[in-house]
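Page 47, continued from p. 46.
Same chain as before, 58 aa.
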Amino acid sequence: MKELVKSIEEKMDLFKANAQAQVVKGNKAAGARARKLALELMKDLKEFRKVSVDEAKK
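Result:
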């Protein structure tokens, strides 16, 4: 679970940087990267929820 949280944090940092580049500088490629990271984050967050619920049941 620690590795999953670390992965989420790293992707979130990359997402923020790319989203900022799109919004502030109008960088279209950064926008595409941010959208891709958003999809990956959704998957990771769903996995986190699943693992977290399993841990809580123990």
